[in-house]
Specification:
Elements: H1 8-11, H2 17-27, H3 32-46, H4 51-61, H5 65-74, E1 86-91, H6 94-98, H7 101-112, E2 125-130, E3 142-144, E4 147-149, H8 154-164
Parallel strand pairs: 1-2
Antiparallel strand pairs: 1-3, 3-4
Helix pairs in contact: 3-5
Bound molecules: FE2/S2 (inorganic) cluster.
FE2/S2 (inorganic) cluster is lined by residues 91, 93-96, 132-136, 139, 141.
Length: 165
Amino acid sequence: MAAASSGKGVSGSRHSPKRAAFKPIKARGKAPDNTINLLLGIQEKRGWLSAKEMSRMCREKGIPGVDVYGVATFYSQFKLAKRGKYLVSLCRGTACHVKGSGRLLEFIQNYLCIKPGETTSDGRFTLQAVNCVGACAKAPNIMVDSVVYGIMDEQKLRKLLEGLR
Ligand code: FES
């Protein structure tokens, strides 16, 4: 009678182990999706998520701080530090690496005096290293905010950054 007591009862049940894992979240009556949307809304408005803004959101929406902080730190698109006016993203994907993104990274670090994840003291530039910006044919690539600049070299990069000063 092993077949009668096999997985059917478990997988067909409303209380399968998979569903049970989500029960504590539902029991609190909080929708994680809504937390994500609320955080996205703040970030869109302010450019980043400050502790003050997240605390205010917790108070106003009645969401435990640990849940908000958990979501904010889990997803890499949330920025927990103030961003510079321009977000410079240096692609470190394979195609860009082969075409010399390492040299560009060295150049930009020396030029701006910051490392990836940091912002210049004048608040002008934030530098980040990213994996692939989806324009491998024009490697090596740099993005400034949402604009991709392809086939970059140190000279073009210097000119681009000088134009943004
Ligand atoms: S690896 Fe740089 S754009 Fe794809």
